[in-house]
Amino acid sequence: MDLSNNKFTGDLPKSFGSLTNLTELFLENNNFTGSVIYLAELPLNYLNLEGNHFSGRIPRQFQSIPNLWFWGNRFDTAAMYPPWNFPLDNVPHEQNISSPPSSQQSAMVDYPSSEASETKKKKLSPLRISYVVVGVALVAVCVAVVFAIHIKRSNAKRLRSLGSSNSTLHSHPISPSIDLSTAAQTASPPFLEISSPFNLVPRRNPPVLLTNTEKTSRRKSFAGENKFAMNSKVYTVAELQLATNSFSEENHLGEGSLGPVYKAEFPNGQFFAVKVINMVSLSFDEEEKFMDVIQMASQLRHPNIVRLIGYCVEHGQHLVVYEYVRNLSLDDALHSEVFKPLSWGLRLRIALGIAQALDYLHSTFSPPASHSNIKAANILLDDELMPHVCDCGLSILRPLTSNSVKTKASEIAIRNTGYIAPEHGQPGSDNTKSDVYAFGVLLLELLTARRPCDSSRPRDEQSLVEWASIRLHDNESLQQMVDPGIRRTFPPRFLSGYADIVSLCIQPEKEFRPPMSEIVESLTRLSQKMGMTKSNASIDGAEVEPLFDRSFRSTQTCFGSSPAASLSIDGT
């Protein structure tokens, strides 16, 4: 788990102590306080606590952690510390940045004596001091010249941007709802053809002028200097407030790691989903980063990706408007007892749709775009149970969110550790390979209907990947892994090919994971081998019908509402 560089504050939650499968934890460069005793019993191989304000004792159990960093905190410096034979000899003197120098032995560092500092001061002759003064003056002059040139160029760009027009894209109506009895027939075959990814490459267009934003804040003028024109509409706060009934509780759809999501109904009858991103006060560069993320997301055009319709940057508010995908998330469909189990054919079709969306992200843009937060809660199912991946590209905004949002994000991150690739947080990690790993976990979730990390199960079954890895290539064990609700609804001989795909995706070494393009081909071949035609629909029998609410299945022809929220985006 990597929570580094996020400006988190406060004590560590007690819930960290329940992460009994956690082997890597990176908390460096935050503002955590209090004790680290909740981490003492975890089977950690990597632990980085640097650059925080932790205090108290250093647990004796930490001596068994192979890779440990905890300099720059406020651990006890009293006698008899540290509590074990701690190697202080090789610790750099400048590491302890959180507490002042002390003559006492520290749990982290020894300081150079004041006599040594006085000796260094005496070595500075008047001639050397004059050299230093002249050098500083020259540097100051150079900085002033460079700053003046930068200001002049920025003003010129701002003047040029005033001549550009605001590029907006009018919202398109939602397609009319279909008769779900027809949807059940359409969904009956275990596979429906999903169109290939579009070969969309962003084109350079004239810059965009955000007039609404410029009226409220001068520093928002950077939006007029974007590399590409926005393929999205610019909304005002007033428009979104009216459409969401002042962001009322009745319009609240869900809560994610970036903020809440609301259903919005506009005067023309259109429905959209509005994500409120609660951010700290942003600098100019951070505002530009936000607009770069919106610009990238506005380019995405794929049938299995939730489309970004527009955005709002006004009065310090940051909101994103998406198309409204009705019904429920894949997480609800797999884990809620309210709904009937998805048939094997539908699960395979959903997996293929998600794979095609990720392949589109990885192969369309240069450098490749990644999702970085693939999980069942971020997959929405429409009326026809087709998957739509949401929150593409937004995970990069997490460090810019407010502390209250980060606290919520840390709780969500704890629940979703099962999707995180082993190399996460390491320098130079490839996020596309991390997407492949998370997709492999999602394939296991579709197969077993188990959560990726479930502390309610026995210890050796809490991690889905660890539990499943040793069973994927044993036919008898593989059959027992299948969700009991669909175990006898299709021939088990088709499981081995699926297990091979899963095994490649969850390889611990990222170099051995295949690209998403190969995974799409493998899933397509697997579907074809199963004879995806209506004449073979009897494989799944009655189990291929959509997941109707059990209590209304015999009398209703519409979906029951999700217990959470149909658009509960419990991710980004």
UniProtKB/TrEMBL annotation:
The chain crosses the membrane at residues 129-151. It is a single-pass type I membrane protein. PROSITE patterns: PROTEIN_KINASE_DOM. GO terms for cellular component: membrane. InterPro entries: Kinase-like_dom_sf, Leu-rich_rpt, LRR_dom_sf, LRR_Rcpt-Like_S/T_Kinase, Prot_kinase_dom, Ser-Thr/Tyr_kinase_cat_dom. SUPFAM superfamilies: L domain-like, Protein kinase-like (PK-like). Its main location: membrane. Pfam families: LRR_1, PK_Tyr_Ser-Thr. It comes from the Eukaryota. It is found in: Membrane. This is Protein kinase domain-containing protein. Residues 92-114 are annotated as: Disordered. Keywords: Glycoprotein, Leucine-rich repeat, Membrane, Receptor, Repeat, Signal, Transmembrane, Transmembrane helix. GO terms for molecular function: ATP binding; protein kinase activity. PANTHER family: LEUCINE-RICH REPEAT-CONTAINING PROTEIN DDB_G0281931-RELATED (PTHR48006), PROTEIN KINASE DOMAIN-CONTAINING PROTEIN (PTHR48006:SF93). Residues 247-526 form the Protein kinase domain. It comes from Gossypium raimondii (Peruvian cotton).
